[in-house]
Design brief:
Length: 113
């Protein structure tokens, strides 16, 4: 048996990260309902796994001005991504459930979420 991970309804603020999603041919993961924002040049979802059957569905992204989905989501990963305006996402985490009690909220990290 091979362990598999499932990520669902998450939000990814790219910020200064080196990439968006770093998968390998042998990654074993299903990802659904992710929202990506705060992207910069060079940050990519660079590879889809090929060894295991994985599912990638319902991604949304707010793109920098003048950029396309295929600038960030490479090698076929653009097939499950929809571009949305800032604040118009319907996928991703609900930050409301973290307000008032988490360090993330208290530190101000959710202010532009």
């Amino acid at each position: 048996m091979v362990a598999k991970h499932t990520l669902k309804n998450g939000s990814c603020y790219a910020g200064d990260a080196q990439g968006l999603v770093d998968l390998d041919p042998n990654s074993n993961v299903d990802i659904d309902g992710m929202y990506f924002f705060g992207l910069k040049e060079g940050q990519t979802f660079d590879e889809l796994p090929t060894v295991y059957e994985c599912s990638f569905t319902n991604f949304e992204v707010t793109l920098p001005a003048g950029k396309n989905i295929t600038d960030f989501f490479l090698k076929g990963s653009d097939a499950f991504v929809t571009a949305v305006a800032a604040g118009a996402n319907t996928k991703g985490a609900n930050p409301e459930v973290f307000l008032g009690w988490t360090w993330t909220a208290v530190s101000g990290a959710l202010n532009n979420f």
